[in-house]
Amino acid sequence: MAGAVYARLFGLAVDQHGYLTAAQARAEGIRVGTLAMMANRGTIERVSHGVYRLVQFPFAERGAYMEASLWPAGTRGIISHESALALYEISDVNPPVIHITLPGVFRVRRSVPDHLVVHHADLKDEEIDRVDAVPVTTVERAIRDCSAAHLGPELIRQAIDDAQRNGLLTTRAAEALRIQLLSF
After folding, report:
1. Rounded to whole angstroms, how far apart are CA atoms 54 and 144?
2. In angstroms, how far is CA 5 from the centroid of its own chain?
3. Domain map (residue ranges) of the chain
4. Strand 51-54 and strand 128-131: pairing?
5. Beta bridge partners of 137
6. Is the pLDDT assigned to residue 184 strictly greater than 70?
7. Cα distance between the two ends of the chain
8. DSSP-H helix ranges across the chain
9. What is the pLDDT of residues 82-140, one digit of tens each?
């Protein structure tokens, strides 16, 4: 029985860097009490409200981003702003927190952890991408969000240049961003 439960949790976590939510477990017929018992035994660990990590999984380089995307109960957070630039490895940004964007109407009813910054926007499907299975705003959307949040023009320029050089932006898209965001 315990092996079967673990196998179902593993199935949920395997594509999420070892992370899963209590809601995902419930949808698989696994009770929250079972998760608590497994956490007490050290089989899984509770990493934040409603988010668990299977300890068998090694810590992934992008695991913190996956955890952040799973944290909002009831919706999936999308990595955005400076955190998206860091995830794409463009520009020299090194945000001390992880930025996530939630739907405009979605309200978090619990305190936001100190390592997260929550933004609200109604993202279109074409504004969402994935990096190592982590949901993230597209490069163009991330650069626009950073510009709107007043990230310095040198970091914006660097993000555009890096994204173009790495094939994440076409020459046309990069030039349009330079004109729109950096022409004063």
Report:
1. 36
2. 26
3. 2-54, 63-182
4. unpaired
5. 128
6. no
7. 65
8. 2-13, 22-27, 32-41, 63-70, 81-88, 139-148, 153-165, 171-182
9. 999 999 999 999 999 999 999 988 888 778 889 999 999 999 999 999 999 999 999 99
